[in-house]
Structure to design on (153 residues):
């Protein structure tokens, strides 16, 4: 299947079927996955600063890829961050990821971001090749995380 058999759109509303497809894709992102509730997806799709883009297989309308873009302002410019970029295994290597990322990048530019940052596991060899192909440069920086355990709240 070629990438022109998929369409990329921003998800601004969703069906229960869409929610289930997104949950299945999100589960592929790693061990830290926590199932998204309908409320979580509503928060994402109605946020004025968070954009969820999906790749749909055109004939079945199946969601086969997704990426999240966040745009936020700091005192001197607007920044963009993208996250949770995933393409279903059967659709990898067919241009879906490139098409999805091109939409994320053009949207960040249209929304006035000065640059876009993200992190990627070094084990994701194909994804890292794609990032370099699209012009991203690896930065020498430390990434820190403080985790809150909301399960106990």
């Amino acid at each position: 299947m070629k990438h022109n058999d998929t369409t990329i759109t921003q998800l601004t509303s969703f069906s229960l079927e869409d929610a289930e497809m997104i949950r299945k894709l999100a589960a592929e992102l790693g061990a830290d996955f926590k199932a998204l509730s309908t409320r979580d997806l509503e928060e994402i799709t109605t946020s004025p600063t968070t954009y969820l883009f999906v790749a749909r297989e055109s004939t079945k309308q199946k969601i086969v890829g997704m990426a999240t873009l966040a745009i936020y302002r700091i005192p001197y410019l607007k920044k963009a961050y993208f996250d949770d970029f995933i393409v279903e295994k059967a659709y990898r290597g067919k241009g879906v990821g490139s098409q999805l990322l091109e939409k994320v990048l053009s949207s960040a530019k249209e929304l006035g971001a000065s640059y876009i940052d993200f992190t990627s596991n070094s084990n994701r060899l194909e994804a890292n090749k794609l990032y370099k192909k699209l012009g991203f440069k690896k930065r020498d920086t430390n990434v820190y995380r403080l985790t809150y355990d909301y399960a106990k709240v």
